Amino acid sequence: MDKALYDKGLEQRKATLGAAYVEKSLGNATDFSKEFQSFITEYCWGAGWGDETLPPKTRSMLNIVMIAALNRMHEWELHFRGALNNGVTVDELKAMITHITIYCGVPVGVECHRIANKVLAEQGLQA
User: Fold this and answer.
1) In Å, how far are 12, 88, 91, 108, 109 from 99, measured between CA atoms?
2) Model pTM score
3) What does the alpha-carbon distance between residue 79 and residue 83 come to, in Å, rounded to a whole number?
4) 62-117 pLDDT, tens per residue?
5) What is the helix, strand, coil percentage profile of the chain, to 5?
6) What is the residue extent of each domain of the chain?
7) What's the rounded Cα separation, in Å, for the pair 110 and 116?
8) Nearest-5° angle of CA 94, CA 50, CA 54?
9) CATH code, residues 56-122
10) φ and ψ of 52, to 5 deg
């Protein structure tokens, strides 16, 4: 493991997903999954998200679209929250969901709206 990349990844992962979520994920890792948690923290969050070529806001926007296209809605909700943490506006998210609906299909767009409404209500960003 590259300790510097891991540390950089841990910082970015917490900034995007929230410290409580990340600490819970790491703390709940089993003997089977501890290596995986280290891997994604170092590789995805350190090497990927830690590359400063693209800002976190742009990476979040890319993730929202790619994860929707893959129909991985549990991860989509996590990254929707992260996108808000990274400065993606509600209007930008709404436009992205419209774009997702056009290119990925209405059922995915409906599910994105269902999740978005739940998250926005929880965060007091929608009545």
Assistant:
1) 27, 15, 12, 11, 9
2) 0.89
3) 6
4) 999 999 999 999 999 999 999 999 999 999 999 999 999 999 999 999 999 999 99
5) 75, 0, 25
6) 3-48, 56-122
7) 10
8) 50
9) 1.20.1290.10
10) -85, 5
